[in-house]
Amino acid sequence: MNLKIVHFMVLLAVLLTGLCSLVYQTIWQRYLSFSVGSDASASVLILTTFLTALSVGYWSAGALSRRAKHKELLCYGWVEIIIGLWAMMFPLLFKLASSLLSFQLLPVFWMDLLITVLLIGPPAVLMGVTLPFLTQGLSQGFQSASLTHARIYAINTIGAFLGTLLAGFFLIEHLGLALSSYLLGALNVSVGVLVLIFSPQLSRHFRNSRETIENEVQTESTVGFNPQSAVDKRYVLLVAACSGFLLIALETYFIRLFSMVTEGSHLAYPTVVGAFIAAVGIGAYLAGKWLPSAARLFVVVPIVMLLAWIVIYYTLPEWPYTDMRLKQFVLTATDAPIYLFVARFVLFFVVIAIPVVTASMLLPWAFHFFKNTDTALGKTTGDLYAVATLATVVGGLVGGYWMFQYFNFEQIFLSFLCVLLLMVFAANQAIIKTRKQYIWVKSALPLLLVGVYLFPVKELEQRLALGFYFQSTEKQLTDLNSAAAAHEWLWQWFGHDQIIASDMQPEGRVDVFQSEQSGQRMIAINGRSNSDTAMSDLAGNGLLGLFPYLLTESPKKVLIVGLGTGVTAGILAHQELVEVVDVSEINAAVIKQFHWFDPFTYQGSQNPKINMIHSDVIKHLHQSEEVYDMIISIPSNFWVAGVENLLTPEFYQLIDNNLNSGGMFVQWVPEYRFSAQGLLMIAKTFSSSFSTSSLWQLTDNDLVFLYKKNGSVNADQSWLESRSGNQLFRATLREIGVYNVRKLLNSQLATHENLLQVSSNSETHSLDKPQLGQVALMALYKNDVNYNSSEIIKGMRAQKKASR
């Protein structure tokens, strides 16, 4: 076969394996979120494990480079085959590893770490092996190695970009986790086999065509730049480390910011990560094209990065308003939300392109400076990327997690600018001949940064506190032409005029609002109104506790999923028969703000019956031996990333395992801004997961699915009369505006058989094939208060009336 075709096929393999690797990463994150949790600490654990294993792979490949000489492509082919086989076995491996949770072999953290390392450690190490082997195997000689390395890095990164978009926008939703893993694993194995077939011919060609090192050293010296004597490698390494730290820290930062500016859906991750990876790929390609000017540009690039990020910093307060205007324009022009996703991606890419593209040039150039004739090219690659990846781990831990415990968005971004300034000085020191140049830059940039600190952005935190996540087509809002006016209108729309408390934690930001006139309070999580103390929400949240309390014979021990304002927990803890109320809340900031709602929760934050559990409820149920008489699930908006895990058959199995005989499970579902398709999907999933089920409407806005273990829910239980006549119970109902208990007991919409029948043609939402988040997001984009499940509910009422 023609050698050029063979070479093209190997580079195509590099592209496809890059694609596969990012699809795997997304799939593995989804799977692991159901065993170790989807909270911030679990996400950091997964990311840290993956990057650390990747670093081990880089270092290992570097150490093995000498032994693998002339067999690099053969090794690469076998590595890709093993990665592909691992991906194909991953669904089974996940089930086996998850079964370890029930044995309680180790403390919670160490158990999570063990499962994560067992599942993603081995393939991540193998992924790290590939780049050093490819760099050494495809380089025709010492001089051409830098260009070859940059090209491989660029092609693999573009493949990763395609994989991010493919996984986030198509594969998981349409094919599911398991089938996607099987298909991509099979593709990976096929690519590995093709490399094995073509590797002997390519290896033989490269071995015969490589120039002697002596000639190359002479050639290098004739062009006037010898990296071994012209650079200080300590500073080059510091620049590479700073670049790795900043890329992951800024990527994590913008995933959070993008989630707050938009709806916080699962699409924030592929949008931000895809844009970053695309820019990294372009940067790596340009690094190869501009290799002759690497020494000069290595000093200039960090300066460009710093200036570009400063400009972006001053645009941040406009982001919520800009996204709202973009949504208005796109959704008015078309009914297809895909155009909104594309527009957001393009706009975000344009914003971050210059600083991320330039940052991505630094690592290939660092390789160019580091390579030397005494060390195998694979070892140089492995060692350099191991250090850079470890810096990325630090960036993920510090910039992506730790800093969000103590600082707000503005402060964190300013700290990143300080790291950029350090990079500017390190880059200037790295190139020996430029150390005495750019003196004016050295003097001006610190002064510029001081100026940024003295004149920070205005109103960023206030504008992030409350976002335009469903008001974008309000007529009054569309007539406003400034961000300030739009945000002022938004506050008035919600009826609150002051923020009385704010807190930032790794799981997200929480703000407590208050109306000075009415005294009502509202909690907003990541810029989205979660719940308030107006009578409509007070009644809904109160009934979520009191209704199952009425129907459960022995409601002593209760678990509530999601705290919100704490009204449900406070009202239940106020009842005589309740002894313990455990509240599983994923966001520590929500727990910290609980006391602000004491006037509406019977001083709930001071009630000894209430026990706060800062944990993902999935992790809590996996690793706890507690069983409950009542479990009440009140998740956030279903389109928010991670929430859909709480409406899967896998989660419902955990519920059943942790429920006492005769115990009651309550699944809250909103009636507003939620489609018939979404309601029927939940009905199908719920009714097929439990042996008994029913659907009830507690208020105009609040629906609940009920499950009673080893029994059925009905209004004829022997204890109902005494329970409903209890003075404290009746007084609590009156305080939330409910006066007719009999009407409440007649609010059933559908029995188990009705639910099975009405949802028979619907799809089941599951961990393997998650669809509910996308369905809920599409309902939100309809931006129509009448776009809801009312017709389905009317049909259920009619059927109930006809059956009497």
Structure description:
This protein is α/β, with parallel strands linked by helices and 804 residues long. The protein has 32 helices and 12 strands. It has an 8-stranded mixed β-sheet, with helices on both faces.
Summed up, what is this model?
By secondary structure, the protein is an alpha/beta fold.
Keywords:
804 residues, globular, 9% strand, single chain, alpha/beta, four-stranded antiparallel beta sheet
**Helicity range:** 55-70%
Could you tell me the mean pLDDT? 86
Strand segment count: 12
Across the major sheet, the strand order is 7-6-5-8-9-11-10-12
Task: Kindly provide the radius of gyration, computed on alpha-carbon positions and rounded to a whole number of angstroms.
Answer: 29 Å
Low-pLDDT segments, ≥5 res: 210-224
Q: Terminal Cα separation, in Å? A: 78 Å
Strand content: 5-15%
Tell me the number of helical segments per DSSP (H or I, 4 or more residues long).
32
Shape: globular
Question: Largest sheet, described in full?
Answer: 8 strands, mixed
Q: From the helix content, strand content and strand pairing, which structural class follows? A: alpha/beta
Please specify the SSE layout and strand pairing.
Layout: H1 3-32, H2 40-64, H3 72-98, H4 108-138, H5 145-175, H6 177-209, H7 213-222, H8 227-230, H9 233-261, H10 268-289, H11 294-315, H12 319-333, H13 338-360, H14 362-370, H15 377-399, H16 409-430, H17 439-454, H18 460-464, H19 475-478, H20 483-494, E1 498-505, E2 508-514, E3 521-525, E4 528-532, H21 535-551, E5 557-561, H22 567-573, E6 580-585, H23 588-592, E7 610-614, H24 617-623, E8 628-633, H25 649-657, E9 659-670, H26 676-689, E10 694-697, E11 702-708, H27 720-724, H28 727-735, H29 741-745, E12 748-750, H30 752-758, H31 772-781, H32 790-803
Helix pairs in contact: 1-3, 1-5, 1-6, 2-4, 2-15, 3-4, 3-6, 4-5, 4-15, 5-6, 5-10, 5-14, 9-10, 9-14, 9-15, 9-16, 10-13, 11-13, 11-16, 12-13, 14-15, 16-17, 21-22, 26-30, 26-31
